[in-house]
Specification:
The structure is a single chain. This protein is of the alpha+beta class and about 270 residues long. The protein has 9 helices and 8 strands. A hairpin with a 2-residue loop joins β5 and β6. The radius of gyration is 19 Å and the shape is globular. The chain binds iron/sulfur cluster. Iron/sulfur cluster binds next to loops.
Length: about 270
């Protein structure tokens, strides 16, 4: 990053698992929305690392390992900034590689079309009201019932590991890996996620564009990008994007503290 057009910030965030303290370099000039994605993901990963350290102190550990891709059969939600970033990454790949990935995405779409899931997904994404868990729960179940591998999965390994969406980074479990064979019916215990990066970025995008917050299912993310191609060219001052993104992070962490306080205060049946 050009030091003449960037500024260093120290960020300190109180998370339920401890203090997150880090420094970031942010461009002071105008940048596209994709430029804020890596930095936001980094904050999310640091917050998750604090959660992981906390459960280790309690004698537990995360059981996810390379080569286990049970969760890569679930529907992955991506925020609009991540959808643009993913499309930019795939567009920059060598022709042959890009064709393979686009071919797999189109096979996934075809399968979803056959099963009627595509129309349901598109209707939720295109509605101009905020997406709710109630909207997505039945679709997520039907999608998972297909056990369709993510188009980016190769030999049970993520082929876009460094660029994978935040939702994939955040799904970590502390229960034995074999329980992930059936994520719906088995008592799988996820690592708490204090800061959902996809939601932070979706809120940021909705504030910038004045639209309802939305998360886009991965198999139709590139269709969404094509429909919103003009928005992909917008730019904002980097420091303003950082400030606005952090506002969403603070609100989310506050909510997370409140949720955990309520769940600890609620007597278990
Ligand atoms: S993007 Fe990678 S980690 Fe995420 S579901 Fe697909 S293969 Fe799995």
């Amino acid at each position: 990053m050009d030091p003449a057009h960037s500024e260093r910030f120290h960020i300190s965030l109180k998370t339920p698992a401890g203090e997150l303290s880090t420094s970031v370099e942010v461009p002071t000039n105008f940048i596209p929305i994709t430029a804020i994605v890596p930095l936001t993901r980094r904050l999310g990963e640091e917050a998750t690392a604090l959660e992981e350290a906390q459960i280790q102190d309690a004698g537990e550990h995360v059981s996810c390992q390379k080569g286990c891709a049970a969760c890569c059969r679930m529907l992955v939600p991506v925020s609009p900034p991540e959808a643009f970033a993913l499309k930019t990454m795939v567009d920059a790949l060598p022709d042959e590689r890009r064709k393979i990935l686009l071919g797999r995405l189109s096979q996934a779409r075809a399968r979803l079309q056959e099963t009627g899931i595509l129309a349901r997904l598109t209707a939720v994404v295109e509605s101009d009201r905020p997406m709710t868990d109630e909207d997505m729960e039945p679709i997520n179940r039907d999608y998972y019932a297909l056990r369709m591998a993510c188009p980016f999965l190769e030999e049970e390994i993520c082929s876009i590991y460094e660029d994978r969406p935040a939702a994939c980074r955040e799904l970590l479990v502390t229960t034995p890996a074999d329980l992930c064979d059936d994520l719906v019916n088995n008592p799988v215990r996820p690592l708490p996620t204090p800061m959902r990066v996809g939601t932070v970025l979706a809120l940021l995008w909705s504030e910038l564009k004045g639209t309802a917050p939305t998360l886009i299912p991965l198999p139709i993310a590139f269709d969404w990008v094509e429909q919103h191609a003009i928005d992909g060219h917008s730019t904002w001052r980097g420091t303003e994007l950082l400030e606005q993104m952090l506002g969403n992070v603070w609100r989310m962490l506050e909510q997370e503290f409140a949720n955990r306080a309520t769940s600890h205060a609620t007597p278990k049946p």
